[in-house]
């Protein structure tokens, strides 16, 4: 664990626990009043130890919230066509309201084709072009879980974000771009930085809100952070550990140094990661309600 003074800690783990309790209560109501149980299917192709941890904790938490959890593990040599057939079957399955295909997929499979085959109504990752479009035009989208989790933490900490300068580092479809959309929705002035950005330290120094989603361990230096800024560290980087071989997780931000300047900062682990899973459950509940024509 890194050293963040308690008043500066943005505790994603605790926030996610609260969120899961709310979700479990709503799931109970759905069951009691409508006889409906939300169902989430997680599809994983091939073996990947890092994904494995994540998939297992998703399935466990889905069950704990009272939802149906279906795990489909396919061998690494599964053809694209077989995977597409599975997705189509899940699209039609009335017990399933959310479908998540774990990324990355093996190289012989076209990930876009697979993601675009999931019906938008069950796309709890929010990666389908219809949901991407709805998010950017202000419609009723399913929002990608990681940016949604970051946005909930920011709103809880900062309240009204109107007029704040927000910098998102990283422009991936799964984190950076949707994060920028959500901050724009909150009336921030948004800068989307990436590997071609000139003078990143100066860009970060101007920011009231910094969201780092790069995938390079501790690349955002503490001294880049403006005094009083709020820092959300999305990075999950597994470093080879000590002699015993235990690996260590670090984010994209130099946490302890950044905490000297920031007013609030998320740790890794225990920050954005748990929020991602809680938001996946929330999206599954949302998808279930919408598919049954119930209010959100
Ligand atoms: N906590 C969670 O729940 C999740 C965590 N993650 C973690 O978040 C991190 C980012 O993930 P993801 O978005 O998928 O990553 P990608 O690899 O898809 O994207 C990384 C982005 O960082 C940019 N980048 C790379 N090098 C630099 C640099 N030197 N300066 C500025 N920008 C740079 C890239 O720019 P360019 O586009 O120009 O190449 C790219 O836009 C990873 O550590 C990942 O493990 C991801 C998903 C969920
Ligand atoms: N279709 C798809 N959707 C995703 O959302 C998706 C994906 N594929 N592929 C992989 C990335 C990564 N990701 C994480 C989620 C939670 C934690 C998490 O809970 N992390 C814990 C630590 C877990 C540990 O100890 O390894 C924490 O930060 O505290 C991490 C990473 C979702 N992703």
UniProtKB/TrEMBL annotation:
Residues 10-125 form the Tetrahydrofolate dehydrogenase/cyclohydrolase catalytic domain. NADP(+) binds at residues 170-172, 236. Pathway: One-carbon metabolism; tetrahydrofolate interconversion. InterPro entries: Aminoacid_DH-like_N_sf, NAD(P)-bd_dom_sf, THF_DH/CycHdrlase, THF_DH/CycHdrlase_cat_dom, THF_DH/CycHdrlase_CS, THF_DH/CycHdrlase_NAD-bd_dom. One of its GO terms (biological process) is L-histidine biosynthetic process. Keywords: Amino-acid biosynthesis, Histidine biosynthesis, Hydrolase, Methionine biosynthesis, Multifunctional enzyme, NADP, One-carbon metabolism, Oxidoreductase, Purine biosynthesis. This is Bifunctional protein FolD. The gene is folD.
């Amino acid at each position: 664990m890194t050293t963040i003074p308690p008043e500066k800690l943005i505790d994603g783990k605790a926030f996610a626990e609260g969120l899961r309790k709310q979700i479990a209560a709503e799931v109970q109501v759905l069951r009691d009043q409508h006889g409906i149980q939300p169902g989430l299917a997680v599809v994983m192709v091939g073996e990947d130890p890092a994904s494995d941890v994540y998939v297992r904790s998703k399935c466990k938490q889905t069950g704990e919230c009272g939802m149906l959890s279906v795990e489909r593990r396919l061998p690494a040599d599964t053809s694209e066509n077989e995977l597409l057939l599975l997705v189509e079957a899940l699209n039609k399955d009335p017990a399933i309201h959310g479908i998540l295909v774990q990324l990355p997929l093996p190289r012989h499979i076209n990930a876009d084709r697979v993601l675009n085959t999931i019906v938008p109504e069950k796309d709890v990752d929010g990666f389908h072009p219809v949901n991407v479009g709805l998010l950017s035009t202000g419609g009723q989208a399913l929002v990608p879980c990681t940016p949604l989790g970051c946005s909930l933490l920011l709103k809880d900490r900062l309240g009204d974000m109107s007029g704040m300068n927000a910098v998102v580092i990283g422009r991936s479809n799964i984190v950076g771009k949707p994060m920028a959309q959500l901050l724009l929705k909150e009336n921030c002035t948004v800068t989307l930085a990436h590997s071609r950005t000139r003078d990143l330290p100066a860009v970060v120094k101007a920011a009231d809100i910094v969201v780092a989603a790069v995938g390079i361990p501790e690349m955002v230096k503490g001294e880049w952070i403006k005094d009083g800024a709020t820092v959300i560290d999305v990075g999950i980087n597994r470093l080879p550990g000590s002699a015993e071989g235990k690996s260590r997780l670090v984010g994209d931000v130099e946490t302890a140094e950044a905490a000297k300047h920031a007013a609030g900062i998320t740790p890794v682990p225990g920050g954005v990661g748990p929020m991602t899973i809680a938001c996946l459950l929330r999206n599954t509940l949302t998808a279930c309600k919408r598919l049954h024509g119930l209010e959100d």
